[in-house]
Amino acid sequence: MPLIDRQLRALPDGFHADGANALYFRAQGESRSWVYRKTLHGKRQTLAIGKYPVVSLKEARAKAFALEQAVEAGRDPFLERKLQGSIPTFEQAARLVHAEVVAGNSNGKHNAQWITTLETYAFPTIGHKPVNAVTQADVRRVLAPIWTAKHSTATRVLQRITRVMDYAVGCGYCETELPVRAIRRGLPKVKRDVKHHAALPWPEMPAFWTDLAKREGQGAAALRFAILTAARSGEVRGMTWGEVDMDAALWSIPAERMKARRDHNVPLNEAALAELRLAKLHYRNFVANKEPPADALVFPSAKAGGPLSDMTLTAVLRRMKRGELTAHGFRSSFRDWVSEDTNFPSDVAEAALAHTVSNAVEAAYRRGDLLAKRRQLMGAWNAYLEGRGSLVINMTTLSAEGQNRA
């Protein structure tokens, strides 16, 4: 039960809970005080709030509520209090970064992986050291055992150590940044084999398309749509009806679902629109006798009702006896076709693939995302897949006609 102000001085020695808000009144002889008690990281911990009656019941509840909000936000108020006026260890600083910075900007899986990699590889070596005592040599000792054997992991560990040390500099615990470049130079050179997604040569695409067009099921439909739009499979699998404007023949993908974290508009050719009409018919026939809501997936999983898995698209390829291919590889097939069989400029193809442009001049030129030209390009791709021949477009005509249609 919540405490009542008039009973506080009469309570016997011990901790007395104020309802269920983690606020406790501690009586010890003549001493009366407020504490916040919480189990965090598997450990029961206590934090002093203030003495009674200097801190009233109302004030104590407000302070306890603020601490509860901090915990809900992923912070550790017990550790923060402990570190006030002192230099934290590397582990303590890393956990603060994880709670205050990483947790608020990451998905759950990345959030967990971020701290787990440091717990596995960094804390055993440097976790106990004051953060201002961590040296370049210390970091090298962390990375050396895994630099060549687990290079991707080692790179992530270095990135996360650097982020913790940058935080320490920002808080005034350290005076200089970690010399990352020097650390890398002091580690063995890593030979990396670049592995590309298996792609079908573009001249074979029409025959492949004829076979794929006969296939039934959500996986086959999603794969066809991904090929027709040259989109990444994850973008297609997470696609909702609210992103589609059938009248404008446009698919607008929000930035949070794009690899480059930028909004991306995809012009829809006739075959892509036909796939969407079939998907909508499927919803009306098998899910509900009405139009799908904006948040409904266009290509949902038949069993779970959630998004299709990437393996669903892979299974379609395996049933076609093309298990060596990947859904992502068809983006390469599309790109090669544009380069070798059409006269569309490369910037139009790169815009269609939503690739990030590093060249400042080209990036400025593409701010309008070349939608009119891309609409012509995707129509040509549709025609090629259906065996209606290669289309070599006159770019002067395309520009005029495309602007009118867009």
- Low-confidence region ranges: 358-367, 390-406
- Specify the helix fraction band: 40-55%
- Rg estimate, integer Å: 30 Å
By DSSP (H or I, 4+ residues per run), the number of helices equals 18
Q: Give the assembly state of these chains.
A: single chain
Report the CATH architecture of the largest domain.
Orthogonal Bundle
CATH topology heading of the largest domain: hpI Integrase, Chain A
CATH level 1 class label of the largest domain? Mainly Alpha
Approximate strand percentage: 5-15%
**Name given to the CATH homologous superfamily of the largest domain:** Intergrase catalytic core
Strand elements, count = 7
Q: What is the structural class?
A: alpha+beta
Distance between the termini: 66 Å
Strands of the largest sheet, in order across it? Answer: 1-2-3-4
Spell the H/E element sequence.
EEEEHHHHHHHHHHHEEEHHHHHHH
Report the average pLDDT across residues: 83
What sort of overall outline do the alpha carbons produce when their principal axes are compared?
extended
In total, the number of domains comes to: 3
